[in-house]
From TrEMBL:
GO terms for biological process: lipid metabolic process. It comes from Streptomyces lucensis JCM 4490. InterPro entries: AIM6_PI-PLC-like_dom (IPR039559), HAT_RTT109-like (IPR051236), PLC-like_Pdiesterase_TIM-brl (IPR017946), TAT_signal (IPR006311). One of its GO terms (molecular function) is phosphoric diester hydrolase activity. SUPFAM superfamilies: PLC-like phosphodiesterases (SSF51695). It holds the Pfam family GDPD_2. This is Altered inheritance of mitochondria protein 6. PROSITE patterns: TAT.
Length: 287
């Protein structure tokens, strides 16, 4: 179904772009800002829940997108990367949904006070996709004012945009809904398909399966053209591009790769190194 909302909302739907108001230093972490600087629209916190302070560390480093892996256990959505290490106290609600709801209320309807674009919450489903998504949908509906919503052909932006990734069986129940509070993370095979940005605002794929360059030496021209073709095709349809499995060891190769991803139009850089990407993007912006 075609997106029927205005162009600005199309950008908002797919965006993980947020910002922060200027705040006293003592309040910066609580409000998710950092020295009054705006949020980083290209920054995606991969496996965010593995940091010492899930969500708050990423927001403290001004990230506009965070990723949480979920396992369906009974009627609970537990957070973790490995099923053998799940903790019943670490739920999607306790680590993400409740803190975000509290934060948005305190910040007058925004994750980052004074910035209109939503935070992206990428929910990576690790158990069977259809049943896990249906439980996720029930969880998201408990927060009626928190999430960007799709209803009968229109997108209604909210403070947080939930995007579902992981097990691909989630796609069918999502596509069947005429009203939902989540969107779908596509793959490169979705480029140019019938899936519009109102359903697939984000397209993610494995860098290592599509490109050979890892930052050492010059970027091969054929791969540069391929990357720009991918991002141009996505952006023409209001969709964003993200790659996972990019090198994430600090050093010149990683910086070279990140610079070429930005130059090629990639919308989100994937990292576990929050401070490293924050420093890189600040330096890149200044340059």
């Amino acid at each position: 179904m075609a997106l029927t909302t205005r162009r600005g909302a199309l950008t908002t739907l797919g965006a993980a772009f947020t910002g922060a108001a200027v705040l006293p230093a003592a309040r910066a972490r609580a409000a998710g800002g950092h020295r009054g600087a705006p949020p980083l629209r290209h920054a995606h916190a991969h496996n965010d829940y593995e940091h010492a302070h899930p969500l708050s560390d990423a927001l403290g480093h001004r990230f506009g997108s965070v990723e949480a892996d979920v396992f369906l256990v009974g009627d609970q959505l537990l957070i973790g990367h490995d099923a053998s290490r799940l903790d019943p106290s670490r739920t999607l609600e306790s680590l993400y949904l409740d803190p975000l709801a509290t934060r948005v209320k305190a910040n007058h309807g925004r994750v980052f006070r004074g910035w209109r674009r939503p935070l992206q919450l990428l929910v990576d489903i690790k158990t069977e996709g259809s049943s896990t998504y249906l439980e996720l949908d029930r969880h998201l509906r408990r927060y009626p004012h928190l999430f960007t919503r799709y209803a009968h052909g229109r997108v209604h932006p909210g403070p947080v945009t939930a995007v579902v990734s992981g097990d691909r069986a989630a796609r069918a129940p999502m596509a069947a809904q005429t009203e939902r509070r989540a969107f779908y993370d596509g793959r490169l095979t979705d480029l140019g398909s019938a899936a519009t940005a109102s359903f697939v605002p984000l397209i993610s794929d494995n860098w290592a399966l599509n490109f050979t360059w890892t930052g050492a030496g010059p970027f091969p021209e054929a791969e540069r053209r391929k990357l720009r073709g991918i991002t141009a095709a996505a952006h023409a349809r209001g969709q964003r591009i993200r790659f996972w499995a990019t090198p994430d060891t600090a050093g010149p190769d990683r910086d070279a790769l990140w610079a070429q991803l930005l130059a090629g139009g990639v919308d989100q850089l994937n990292t576990d190194d929050l401070a490293g990407l924050e420093s890189f993007l600040d330096a890149h912006s200044s340059a």
